[in-house]
Amino acid sequence: MDGGKGGKRATFARCALRGIISAMASKKSAPVYDESKIKTLSSLEHIRLRTGMYIGRLGDGTNPDDGIYILLKEVVDNAIDEFIMGNGTKIEIEVKDGTVKIRDYGRGIPLGKLVECVSVINTGAKYNDDVFQFSVGLNGVGTKAVNALSSHFRVIAIRGGQFAEAVFERGDLKNERKGKVKEKAHDGTYVEFTPDKDIFGDYQFNLEFIERRVWNYAYLNAGLTLKFNGQEYRSENGLLDLLKDEAGEATIYQLGYHKGERIEFSFTHTNNYGEEYFSFVNGQYTSDGGTHLSAFKEGFLKGIQAFYKKDYKSEDVREGTTAAVAVKLKNPVFESQTKNKLGNADIRPWVVQEVKAAVEDWLHKNAEAAKMLEQKIVANEKLRTELNVVKKEAREAAKKIALKIPKLKDCKYHLDDGEKGEDSLIFMTEGDSAAGSMVSSRDVMTQAIFALRGKPENMFGKKRTAIYKNEELYNMMMALGIENDVSGLRYGKIVIATDADFDGFHIRNLLLTFFLSYFEELVTGGRVHILETPLFRVRTKKETRYCYSEKERDAAVKDLGSSSEVTRFKGLGEISPKEFGQFIGADMRLVPVDVNTLKAVPQVLEFYMGKNTPDRRDYIMKNLMADIS
To answer: What is the DSSP string of 211-244?
Structure first.
């Protein structure tokens, strides 16, 4: 017995000794942490290393918030600031073959500080109120980020017949020169840059995204002419023009308008469901709103309540509202470098007061519009009452369906969980087979799944109460958390995941009709996306490739050889869970659903989802014959 115990002790001692030696060895192999490991990056090196801190997302140009558009915006913002300060009435923009060229006719960057202004962070004149009073770019980073993230960056400043030029590559100065201009040239600044493919990959500019930005610049700067790829954009009436172009002829009453020293806004109501707002700060489109927009809504409600001397509820006043609001601030505080949301809490009192007084005054001066608005509010009240009755019946019939929603496989984190919920999304899938593949391969922390039983009902032209009489659409609305308001949305993205066939496309259109009819803010707010999944699998014993088009398939067959096996996926359910994981993971391909102008939505829905008109039959036959031939 003693020998056995001694043997065990010896074995234990040997194991312990090996553990100590192993620990010492690992300690020896650990990297040394001393002064030699401390690095100091230049400002431009830091921008390239931590790009997201400066321009937000990267992207390849398929999303309007991708980094290449932020680079363009940063340069144009500087030109706009010159116009705001009364210098120059024209800006020229050209985008061709991946290179952007921008010329303003302002004062021009001071020649002796040209290099510093485009390459040294926290250098610029926008910290001086005498030079710039209302500016978007107040942190001295914008143009420097463009410089650092471009494979080619060239800037020329012209002042009083003299010029200075500097050329950079990825933030490194390659050449500079100064002298007299050969011809009589107007003062101003010229910038050209090519976004670095080492940073952005194989990107491509979407000219429609840029055109929309250019129009916003024109609306916000009445009297400024912007020339983009040879076409001129100009607005004489500011936000009034913006709302006219967006709302079209669907307005219930004439557009309201007010322009003060620090705030400009325009408003109207339509018969559409929900609300739509366009908000700006110092010319910057704040897609996520902020304190200026919430203060505007509060002032708008108070102005209407004061005029009618009735305590109307905010949801009855705001239902069907379309409005645009822009404020000018000396020290705007944004929640990120990309400036999508304003955080200045101190502006609330004066914004609320000025909006309230202006709305009340406008209603006094426009009696017919005031009468139409009151009818709209009363109609909203009636509709809300009807909805409450139907909601109660639906809840009772569903037996607390909000707590246990059929066909929903939920995730752990949602939008209201802060940073953890920002990446949350819900897949709207076609049937149980597709849902089955996703359930096994999804990220249960952030990816939820709602399985449709088949083709949902076409909701075009139906009242909102119809949702509560359709069990599946009601379940879907409750799963999304948008019954009362889109602000209750539980997921960061709504992803439509249907088969790439005619039935799948039809279901996709039916879902888009549902969202655009009742919850268009989800679409205009960039929440709705289409999932792209591969159509083909090309493989050999050594390699497998997934292809999203016939062109990609043909290229894969050419690379892998004609003997490779080609599989055509007819539906999502044919893709195994093991395969599916990679298509909804880090490399997931999502196409954002976008709307160019709100006024086009009713016509598009009427044409594709309304009654079977002769025009639509002719369109189908014409395109069907084109496909066959």
So the answer is: HHHHHHHHHHSTT-EEEETTEEEE-SSTHHHHHH
